[in-house]
Amino acid sequence: MPEEAVTTLRAELDRFGRVEEGLALLEVFLDVARPRLGAVVLDPVGLQLPTELTDDRAVVQRLIDELAQEQPKGRVVERGYDMDDEQARWDYVRLAYSSNQATVWSSRQRTTYFEASGRHRATYWLPDSLKVEYFDAVSSRGWAIPEDWLTAVAKRPKPWWKRGGR
Questions:
Q1: CA dist., res. 77 & res. 35, Å (int)
Q2: 1 falls in which pLDDT band (50, 70, 90)?
Q3: What is the pLDDT of residues 27-53, one digit of tens each?
């Protein structure tokens, strides 16, 4: 059975009118994709609050400070989040863009659905069926879908034997 086509969507915070719009879109995604999700993790080392963040600055800074205190000295421990827990989802959404690396995997961890890296890059990779559900949920909640997301073309992934290497 061929793999579903996947659409790549750029999701850097600076492309949205307000940072909170990007965070809201991630929050909707995590809610919609929850039944399909596997690991939802981030690198808690060196978390930095996005300077553009206007709402919840103090709350997010407190989350960052608490995580910094939890980290064992000299060891990086990837932090996982339970997406069935509403507070954990809220925390992850606000910390993902503060992290050097945050990733959302599919249930079998064969597909990355979302990744924020280096605090300046973020991408969604959505199979067609999930993209339709996600866009419907974004619209029903009153958020605008970025224009370039609507026109993005889905592509079929390369077969496993053609990936990497060459």
A1: 25
A2: very low
A3: 999 999 999 999 999 988 888 888 777
Residue 100 dihedral angles phi and psi, to the nearest 5°: -70, -30
Give the C-alpha separation, 77 to 50, whole Å.
22
How far are the Cα atoms of 55, 76, 91, 95, 154 from residue 66, in angstroms, in the given order? Answer: 19, 15, 12, 12, 40
DSSP code of 5? Answer: P
For the record, the structure tokens of 139 come out as: 């619209």
**What six digits make up the tokens of 41?**
């993790």
Of 4, 17, 31, whose CA–CA distance to 156 is shortest?
4
Rounded to two decimals, the pTM is 0.86
Lookup: tokens for 162: 């053609």
Residue the block writes with tokens 């958020």:
143
Helices (H), 11-166: 19-33, 57-70, 86-96, 128-140, 147-151
Q: What are the structure tokens assigned to 143, written together?
A: 């958020």
